[in-house]
Design goal:
By secondary structure, the protein is an alpha/beta fold. The protein is built from 14 helices and 12 strands.
Length: 323
């Protein structure tokens, strides 16, 4: 019987998000709701499976790991692009993807939640009340109305965030490699240079695709341009930000950060970001709504059944889905 691993179910929501019965009638399903760990641990856990249904941006499948999974014939990834998919195709593995994220609301709303949590010190307030201290030790926040939000990457998600910011009475600045004054104006923003965005914003939200050009783009120089106490929100990709430079700025109390993505996930115990001041941290759940998971897993099941029928659907095509 075909053995299928449903991995990366870290929030333990897979079973409740879709009807697995049609697939359970044709294959053995094993759900993994904990991170698989090192490359050797990934191989040990998955070497006995014919198919893997994975959640985007969680377990990393390097070429070395893929080469050690000779039994693997089918791989399904939620979302539309992720690291490792091209390598899987090159190793002869059939790869399908799912829908999800086409409207951008899930991550955009989470970016707004992080911004508000940082501005009004929500985690500190929550901890103080639960510890019986009430307002003691909770600093006052600042009003967003009349302030300026800078958006790096005014695409689908960035455009949604721009709309939320305008609803709060904020001015919006925007930068991307292909930005024009007309494109920015259509989203209610003002096109500026990257330097102007960092120096002129009270908060900055990152919505760029990770590429060779954007990797490390938010470096020490960019962070040094930020206003004292300004907030950096990242729900996009961790490598866009120079982590050592960010830690230095946080520990020097120059800026704040609200982060949903990290260089290593899960964040290792004792990581300096976990104890850095002026931070709000969430565990990469920007896209993780009930609605998104229902779509992800429903499509994953459809893709798996189609593969078992010899008629794969939603095939991943490397030339159309560059990371």
């Amino acid at each position: 019987m075909t053995r299928i691993a449903i991995i990366d179910d870290w929030q333990n929501v897979a079973r409740a998000s879709a009807d697995w019965a049609p697939l359970e009638n044709r294959a053995e399903l094993v759900f993994f709701n904990r991170p698989l760990g090192s490359p050797d641990e990934i191989v040990k856990a998955l070497e006995g499976f014919d198919a893997i249904l994975a959640m985007r941006e969680r377990t990393i499948f390097s070429p070395e790991v893929i080469a050690r999974l000779p039994r693997l014939k089918f791989f399904n990834m939620t979302g539309r692009r992720a690291r490792g998919l091209d390598d899987l195709v090159r190793h002869g593995v059939a790869v399908s993807i799912t829908g999800g994220g086409e409207t951008g609301e899930d991550t955009a709303e989470h970016a707004l939640a992080l911004l508000l949590a940082a501005v009004r010190h929500v985690p500190a307030g929550d901890a103080a009340v639960k510890a019986g201290h009430f307002q003691i030790g909770v600093e006052p926040g600042f009003r967003l109305a009349g302030k300026t939000l800078g958006i790096l990457g005014l695409g689908l998600i960035g455009g949604k965030v721009a709309g939320y910011a305008r609803a709060l009475g904020m001015e919006v600045l925007a930068w991307s490699r292909s930005m024009t004054a007309e494109k920015a104006a259509a989203a209610g923003a003002k096109a500026v240079s990257r330097d102007e965005l960092f120096s002129g914003s009270d908060a900055i939200s990152i919505h760029l695709v990770l590429s060779d050009e954007t990797r490390g783009m938010v470096d020490a120089e960019a962070l040094g341009r930020m206003r004292p106490g300004a907030i950096l929100v990242n729900t996009s990709r961790a490598p866009i930000v120079d982590e050592p430079a960010l830690l230095k700025a946080l520990n020097e109390n120059r800026i704040q950060a609200a982060l949903d993505v990290f260089m290593e996930e899960p964040l290792p115990p004792g990581h300096p970001l976990a104890t850095a001041p002026n931070t709000v941290l969430t565990p990469h759940v920007g896209y993780g709504t009930r609605e998104a998971y229902q779509l992800f897993y429903r499509n994953s099941i459809e893709n798996m059944l189609a593969f078992l029928d010899g008629k794969p659907i939603r095939r991943y095509e490397p030339e159309r889905h560059a990371v």
